[in-house]
Amino acid sequence: MLLDNASVLIAGLAIALTVLLAVFKRWAIPTLDPLEPPLLKPRVPVIGHIISMIRERAGFYPRLFKEAHMPICTLPMLNGKLYVINSPSLIQSALRNNDVSFDPFLIEFSKGMFGLTPTLLEAISQDSLMKELLETISSTLMGESLHKLNVVALTSLIQHLNAVQAGTPFIVADSFLWIRDIVTEATTRALFGEMNPFTAEHIPHLWTFDKSAALLAIDIAPSLIAGSSIAARKKLNDILSPYYEAKYDQRPDTSDLMRRRGRILRREGIGAKDLGIQELLIPWVGTTNTAPTLFWLLSQIFSRPDYLLRVRDEVAAITSIEDGLGKRIAELDSSLLEKQCPVLNACYHESLRVYVHSVGNRRIMKDTRIQDSDGREYLLKKGTNVQWPPMVTHFIDSAWGEDPAIFNPERFLNATVQDVKNRRGAFLPFGGGKHLCPGRKFAVTEIVGFVGLLALGFEAEGLSLPESTDPIFGGAPRQPLWKNQDPGFQLRRRPGWEDVVWSTKIFSASEYGGVSEGLGGPPENRKAIRTPGEDSGLMPICSSTDGPHFTWEL
Ligand code: HEM
Questions:
Q1: How far is CA 496 from CA 328, 493, 499, in A?
Q2: Distance 499 CA to ligand 1 centre (A)
Q3: pLDDT digit string (tens) for 337-389?
Q4: Rounded-to-integer distance, Cα 479 and Cα 176, Å
Q5: How far is ligand 1, taken at its centre, from the CA of residue 140, in Å?
Q6: CB under 6 Å to ligand 1: residues?
Q7: Is the four-CA dihedral 57, 59, 60, 61 of positive or negative sign?
Q8: Strand partners, 85
Q9: Rounded-to-integer distance, Cα 510 and Cα 519, Å
Q10: Which residue's CA lies nearest to atom 36 of ligand 1?
Q11: Cα–Cα distance between 473 and 455 in angstroms, integer?
């Protein structure tokens, strides 16, 4: 009888365990429709992918791709799932699909990242206001408003070149930090005007904030996992609030972008303190990718004498020299940088490919399908998040050939029609689709203009090209890894350019199509001056078929 009781107990336990396991499995491993992307299970059930994502950062995605080689897969995450797309043609299909959207993240990410107050949350949760704020960003990052930003930012960067005395080298102790700080100063000066609150002592706070900004976006135990970022954010809020309190954003020397956004948010009843919280977004997006990209471009060009010479010739051709009072004035025509400097642009695009890897994030708004170039369809289910990793697509053989790990600008100079076709959906430094980075034209002028002038008029003795490490969690650009290298260099004027005062050409509104505050007409008209095709999320790919210039191809 005793034995019988024990057997019944064991049998009962076994049944309970089986049921528990089945429930756990059902809970932990999502059930998939046969048309959904195939499942890629983690080594450690339930939390394995999440732990790997945090531990391996952007390197997680190429590791998975190397192991499983799946064009698209479903990752089980806790009791949910995430789609990861590696195939460029599927990414392109997703970027064109209106049911694959970034919109929910605009609020979800911002809430934790910027510490939005209930007032701000309520305001930006109105679709019409969010749309208006985004539209303001894109319309003021083009035409004359963009030109004003470019002139102020380049002029600020150029001041550092003019300060270099003939015959006396300027010592840069740490090239990454030097570039980081002067780019942040130039960009924030262009955005916020003469009363720019981002003075030298506050600039490092923006970068401390950036280090864990993506962790803040997750909004789980923020003070525990990102305390220093929160402290830095507070310091930045504290310098921005008085700026808004004094209404400096409405001064004529403030960018159209910040002025118009300030006006819209005030109209919605947002006060100075909340403006100081909300508007941190703009200097953050405006600097944290631009500065590292500039660093990589500079280091690459200066460590390759052949490219340095070719870039010098191109920039010399668009820089005019005039005699001033005892000095020669060298004036760069920045409007010609994109069209007349193919080698410089090829080096820029190659730097973006090799070093800038912002993971794309979207959510499926209702059940939908995407299709690859062979016609294979996948079902994506409502409510699931989707990611695509440039760390995979920027190095995928099908798009870049056999040497994707090598820095080779020629791939952008000599691209065939087939190359251009193969790269669609693979080159994603600025994301794509409806949310394609609206600041890319501002960034390109700062980056390419400043590096071009450095190449033309300066030598950088001791500037080395470090190895790179994966981007910080949720970040885009790779970071320098100096090992035993000296991070600094000496900047000196090149022979023949000792007496030159550097400057950048300023155009009138009419030369820039007259798009400015009050001049541009309705937003629909302003969109029309975008480069054709850009709205569909199309990537800049150099094509040799129509001459050596850059086009924005589908
Ligand atoms: C090399 C420099 C830059 C890089 C690599 C870069 C990259 C990106 C990427 C990957 C996205 C996400 C796009 C997507 O999800 O499809 C983005 C969005 C954005 N970027 Fe940039 N960016 C740069 C410079 C700038 C600058 C200078 C500004 C403005 C001053 C700016 C403003 C924005 C804004 C406002 C968004 C959000 C757009 C939206 O959600 O509609 N970016 N950027």
A1: 11, 8, 8
A2: 38
A3: 999 999 999 999 999 999 999 999 999 999 999 999 999 999 999 999 999 99
A4: 9
A5: 14
A6: 102, 134, 137, 285-286, 289-290, 293, 356, 358, 360, 429-433, 435-440, 442-443, 476
A7: positive
A8: 72
A9: 10
A10: 437
A11: 33
